Amino acid sequence: MAQSNTSREFSRKRPWLAVLLTVIVPGLGHFYLRLWGRAVLWLALSILTSFAFVPSGAVPESLSVSAILEASQSLSTQGTVVLFGISLFCVVDVILMTRHINNYVTRTETEGVKHCPNCGKELDQDIDFCHWCTTELDDEQSD
Fold first, then answer.
1. Mean pLDDT within 104-133
2. Residues 6+ apart with CB under 8 A from 21
3. CB atoms inside a 10 Å sphere around CB 98
4. pTM of the predicted model as reported, rounded to 2 decimal places
5. Coil, strand, or helix at residue 115?
6. How crowded is the C-beta side of 103, counted as CA atoms within 13 Å?
7. Are 83 and 49 in contact (CB under 8 A)?
8. Cα gap 92→102, rounded to integer Å
9. Residue 70 vs residues 52, 75, 105: alpha-carbon distances, Å
10. pLDDT tens per residue, range 7-62
11. Which of 105, 98, 89 lies closest to 41 in space, CA to CA?
């Protein structure tokens, strides 16, 4: 099967991997999906929320299990709910974005959608130029 520009830009993604990466660090799953803006926004939101709700004395100096449990007990209920909520919304967003990308790749492969050789965006079949970048198309490129 020939790859189009979109197939190179967006390939089929593994939802379980995107979710796993997001659970480890919010925003990391979006980096895997190559959604740079969303990844930076989710990562920044989780960091800013951590600074706002985690008390400065609660950060453990070592990564032992007892130190992490002690630090988690010093977190307020409100802080726990907010941090968990942001992580949950990030996981839901990465699931929806994975489905969207996979559906787009499937539709592109099955419907034979053509893409501009210059900018890579979807072409309108009724015109002989790319309406995104105004590149003139040959008859073989627009068919």
1. 80
2. 28, 29, 31, 32
3. 23
4. 0.67
5. strand
6. 6
7. yes
8. 16
9. 19, 9, 46
10. 446 688 999 999 999 999 999 999 999 999 999 999 999 999 988 887 777 777 77
11. 89
